[in-house]
């Protein structure tokens, strides 16, 4: 993949991925709905070291979004940038929509399908999981969001 770059709405934060993202998927949990103000979010995973700020890192703010993780967002415009959870310390899940070319990263599954909004209609034949995927790395002992 060519350089995968992205940023926030106001342009303060710019980032670049040093490796190809993987495990892209939709999340329909309440935390994502509230964090985005939207029915769902699409995340993809990349190693923490490979998510590199080109500018605006000082403007990035973090909020504890659960007992086991935080979300980073642009402190100037509020764009949600990524989530980082304790049970996956070496990777982050970034918002695919923040890429300059978000269409390049295709989601492959849905999680927290049971929390989806009743008027959303998705007929994409992707696997749909009630909560987390059963093989989620390091999930034992964590308390998933309701
Ligand atoms: Zn911004
Ligand atoms: Zn979620």
From TrEMBL:
Residues 4-114 form the CENP-V/GFA domain. Belongs to the Gfa family. It comes from Sphingomonas brevis. The keyword Zinc applies. SUPFAM superfamilies: Mss4-like. InterPro entries: CENP-V/GFA, Mss4-like_sf. The keyword Metal-binding applies. Pfam families: GFA. Transmembrane segments: none annotated. This is GFA family protein. Keywords: Lyase, Metal-binding, Zinc. PROSITE patterns: CENP_V_GFA.
